[in-house]
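Translate structure to sequence.
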């Protein structure tokens, strides 16, 4: 069986290179196993979190309510350009406010991104829109922010409670592409959660996307996207398309000029899924 596995690995590696995938490391995961094969590795054992939504043992905690040490400022913000005296340099300290166990967007200080880069990952994040809503705050002006996977693919954050924003721009939408299956947005000011599984795109040596990104999203514990294929970058009024980029890039949170709040943010890096190879 061991000799058979080694031969299978070699064949797979040759196929991967021939196809121009350029992911020889990933080929090691493409191993054929018989049904109920006793030689197959067992999943590693990991202690479950004591409470739902709390970081698992192998999670990277991005915000525990105390500081922004895992974050830096982006050069661009979600709203109008900030004055030079306010706008931080790219990669400088994040200037959002931290108090009472949450971080809050400070208007015009710009987006923030993680210091660490991620590809395939599981993300948990909790957020709250402003409790007070004025009559001028409608549609996209109401509690707007976003989570950008790899800084490119946006999962929209918005106060969509009794708010008629366009469907592919409401809370839990893949911005400009897919509305959520259902709207489970809570009232303004109440804490909400996203639990996300994200699969990065893969590009060949010529920069062509040979595997689009995919995403599964739970909003407040309810499935709102079930393994959907992201069409490409998510931008306002621009057609989605893929451009080649690194295998891992930082996560970003958007400053859209609303005092959004965030807490309990953690991420788990996920390996490539093994694929079964048939004869």
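Result:
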């Amino acid at each position: 069986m061991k000799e058979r596995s080694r031969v299978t690995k070699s064949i797979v590696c040759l196929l991967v290179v021939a196809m121009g995938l350029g992911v020889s490391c990933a080929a090691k995961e493409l191993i054929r196993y018989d049904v109920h094969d006793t030689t197959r590795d067992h999943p590693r054992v990991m202690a479950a979190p004591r409470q739902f939504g709390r970081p698992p043992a192998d999670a990277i905690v991005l915000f525990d309510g105390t500081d922004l040490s895992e974050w830096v400022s982006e050069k661009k913000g979600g709203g109008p350009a900030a004055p030079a005296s306010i706008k931080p340099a790219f990669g400088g300290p994040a200037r959002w406010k931290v108090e009472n166990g949450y971080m809050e967007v400070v208007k015009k200080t710009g987006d923030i991104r993680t210091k660490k880069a991620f590809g395939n990952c599981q993300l948990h994040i909790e957020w709250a829109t402003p409790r007070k809503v004025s009559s001028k705050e409608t549609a996209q002006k109401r509690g707007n922010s976003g989570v950008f996977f790899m800084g490119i693919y946006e999962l929209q954050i918005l106060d969509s409670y009794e708010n008629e924003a366009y469907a592919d721009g409401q809370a839990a939408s893949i911005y400009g592409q897919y509305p959520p299956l259902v709207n489970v947005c809570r009232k303004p000011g109440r804490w909400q959660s996203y639990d996300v599984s994200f699969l990065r795109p893969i590009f060949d040596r010529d920069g062509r996307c040979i595997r689009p990104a995919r995403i599964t999203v739970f909003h407040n514990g309810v499935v709102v996207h079930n393994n959907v294929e992201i069409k490409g970058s998510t931008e306002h009024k621009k057609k989605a398309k893929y451009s080649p980029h690194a295998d891992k890039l930082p996560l970003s949170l958007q400053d859209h000029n609303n005092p959004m709040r965030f807490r309990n943010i953690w991420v788990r890096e996920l390996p490539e899924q093994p694929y079964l190879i048939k004869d």
